[in-house]
Amino acid sequence: MTERIVVVGAAVLHGGRLLAARRSAPAELAGRWELPGGKVEPGEAPEGALVRELREELGVESQALARVPGEFPLKAPYTLHVWTARLVPGSPDPEPLQDHDELRWLTPDELWDVEWLDQDVAAVMEVARGPWGDGAPDD
């Protein structure tokens, strides 16, 4: 049996909006939108991986808040776990971007105005069911 590899995604909430990141690489994912995140390294807690990935990918400091209910299957052997997160006050604006070419803060009415990666659709739907607006303080 192949061991599953956990990938973490961040539902970064701020002022009633959700942060979406448009992939620039690899080519087969370019132009599609995702919840930022990445793989959990061996021996790393998923919440720690989330904070590390947001620092590496977006150059921001964050705090993982609560796990979004559910496990979202990806292409085997990967599985996606999503946490709500907030940016730490005083964190720089996200950039330079590593695997993304655009970031967008989406209101609940704008959630489906972007083309999400297939594997993120169920996670975004679950996040949309939760409360909005308390994920990060306004600076």
Automatic annotation (TrEMBL):
EC numbers, comma separated: 3.6.1.55
Coiled-coil regions listed: none
UniProt-recorded Gene Ontology molecular function terms: 8-oxo-7,8-dihydrodeoxyguanosine triphosphate pyrophosphatase activity; 8-oxo-7,8-dihydroguanosine triphosphate pyrophosphatase activity; 8-oxo-dGDP phosphatase activity; 8-oxo-GDP phosphatase activity; metal ion binding
PROSITE patterns attached to this UniProt entry: NUDIX, NUDIX_BOX
Keywords: DNA damage, DNA repair, DNA replication, Hydrolase, Magnesium, Metal-binding, Mutator protein
Gene3D superfamilies in the record: Nucleoside Triphosphate Pyrophosphohydrolase
One GO term of the biological process aspect: DNA repair
SUPFAM superfamilies found in the cross-reference section: Nudix
Catalytic activity: 8-oxo-dGTP + H2O = 8-oxo-dGMP + diphosphate + H(+)
Cofactor: Mg(2+)
Superkingdom, natural source: Bacteria
Top EC class of this enzyme: hydrolase
Domain Nudix hydrolase: 3-129
CDD domains: NUDIX_MutT_NudA_like (cd03425)
Pfam families: NUDIX
Family: Belongs to the Nudix hydrolase family.
PANTHER family the UniProt entry points to: 8-OXO-DGTP DIPHOSPHATASE, NUDIX HYDROLASE FAMILY PROTEIN
Name of the featured protein: 8-oxo-dGTP diphosphatase
Species per Swiss-Prot/TrEMBL record: Streptomyces fructofermentans
Species lineage: Bacteria, Bacillati, Actinomycetota, Actinomycetes, Kitasatosporales
